[in-house]
Amino acid sequence: MDQTRRNVLKAGGGASLFALLAAAGMLQPGTALAADRNQKAFEAKNLKDALDALGAGSPINSNDIVMTAPEIAENGAVVPIGAVSKVPGTESIAILIAKNPTALAASFDIPAGTEPAVSTRVKMAETSEVHVLVKAQGKYYMTKKEIKVTIGGCGG
Amino acid sequence: MTDPTRIRATAKDGGVNVKVLMAHAMETGQRKDDAGKPIPAHYIQHVGVTWQGKVVLSATWGTAISKNPFLEFNFKGGKKGETIQVTWTDNKGEKRTDEATIN
User: Fold this and answer.
1) B-contacting residues of A 16-75, CB under 8 Å?
2) ipTM of this complex prediction, to 2 decimal places
């Protein structure tokens, strides 16, 4: 038990060690697809900071993005979210949850040949607006929907 | 180390529907154990799906993805009998690749 803890502490001791591991990972042929992680965006505490870190600024509200999500989520630990973009030239789709401890939940790069539609399941700490951000031809588009959460998903 | 990733790839309408279920705790780092000590964050940061050596989806995740993550998407091309690979990498540098045949 103590040993594990020590290892964790040791590992956590240096961000540089982490960078080293990541760099080592990058060198393996199979991981050429590892996208550059925008750590700043993932650490952003609120929606605005996350959007700024993503370089999205103030996205254009769009009806060409369709979000499939429940009105009410009984269990915040598992909230199904589907996002479909009809914006031509969609390059990436991101899911942001305004009131989570960190707003950015996921970002999906959509290569040519892949449909601009993804489904996943997310955790929500409390009732919040959920945003789907789409990047297409260098511009950002967004849609939002409020999802009511009965039991939060971050406490337990 | 970890359980295999469950992958279902189904060819339809000239494309492939991919459903993926990964086995991962997805700890946020926000929770505390019974003794009140914080449980360190442990979550998948990147998921890559390839077909014929081509990346068909690349996902970057934060801590808000649910435990045992689910992912579904569709790509064009791809025929029955071909394979796709799903690789995830987490914040501790652990990594897992699984393969499935398109049905």
Assistant:
1) 21-22, 25, 30-31, 33-35, 37-38, 42
2) 0.95
Number of domains forming the structure of chain B = 1
Using alpha carbons only, give the angle A4, A10, A12 rounded to the nearest 5 degrees: 100
Cβ separation of A25 and B89 shorter than 8 Å? yes
List the domain boundaries for chain A. Answer: 1-34, 38-151
Residue in A closest to B94 by C-alpha: A25
| CA distance, residue A155 to nearest chain B CA (Å) | 6
**Mean pLDDT throughout B52-70?**
97
User: A7 in helix, strand or coil?
Assistant: helix
Structural fold of domain A38-151: Immunoglobulin-like (2.60.40)
- Residue A21 pLDDT level (bands cut at 50, 70, 90): very low
